[in-house]
Amino acid sequence: MSDEAILRLDSITMKFGGLTALENVSFEVRAGEICGLIGPNGAGKTTLFNVVCGVYRPAGGTVWFKGEPVSGLPVHQIARRGIARTFQVVKPIPRLTVLENVMIAAASPLLAGSWVPFTTRGQREVRQKAMDALARVGLVEEAHLPAGQLNLGYLRRLELARALVMNPSLLLLDEPVAGLGYDAVEDFLALVKELRRDGLTVLLVEHNTGVAEALCDHMVVLDHGKMIAAGDPARVLADPAVVEAYLGKDDSLGPSA
Ligand SMILES: Nc1ncnc2c1ncn2[C@@H]1O[C@H](COP(=O)(O)OP(=O)(O)OP(=O)(O)O)[C@@H](O)[C@H]1O
């Protein structure tokens, strides 16, 4: 991990009509770290992801990525600069194979910046990139299965491969272990740590604070759109403001997953 911030949110405000979903949120994610974004339901976590990825243009503030402002750029341009995300609800095309689902993510001409993927050489390259991404998530043996046959744990890996194939330097993971059993959670956490060892920076939304504490180097807590704490995970989770935000709203605050 370095001291350099790869992502910096500077006073981000996001409104939906009269509702302020994010209010003056500022924090940094350092290159090579796993940063956890936690908070009770409706805190603004998904909205923040959407602002970082360019789905929403913030009403105020600036998102900086690798030292350059990116807020206001279209989604595909932000993706090309190196930010990829996964979604909590995984929706592959079930009749296509696992490999084809990853190839589609890799072959988007908007992301590739040209029509190269539609030449024979381009297709070979896309296929190779997709196989490399599947190897990183441990899905090579499943590459030729229809995606509809995968269980939830493997679907989450497929979703991760679709993000990795874009060769990001910052990966946004939206509740990647929600609904998984104990072993699948452990496997997925090990995989995320391996990606970090390979040099990726990760910002992840996680509902279960025990999982977040086990995985993250740094934690940011939102409540009602405001940042109420940030820093070392154990210290953040012991912060009275964080305990108060969770009390009565969520029973997942606790020492273990
Ligand atoms: N597209 C939208 N239009 C209107 N209001 C929205 C929209 N998206 C989110 N909101 C509102 O903004 C607030 C923050 O929502 P958001 O989904 O970002 O919270 P969250 O922390 O991700 O919650 P959860 O943990 O339940 O997924 C909520 O009050 C939500 O109802």
Task: Describe the protein's architecture and organization.
- Helices cover 37% and strands 24% of the residues.
- With 257 residues, it is of the alpha/beta class.
- The protein has 2 domains: 1-82 and 169-257, P-loop containing nucleotide triphosphate hydrolases (Rossmann fold, 3-Layer(aba) Sandwich), CATH 3.40.50; 91-167, no CATH class.
- Strands 6-7-8-3-9-10 form a 6-stranded mixed sheet, with helices on both faces.
- α3 packs across α5 and α5 packs across α6 (152-164).
- It is globular, with a radius of gyration of 18 Å.
- The two termini are 25 Å apart.
- The structure holds adenosine-5'-triphosphate (ATP).
- Adenosine-5'-triphosphate (ATP) is lined by residues 16, 19, 21, 39, 41-47.
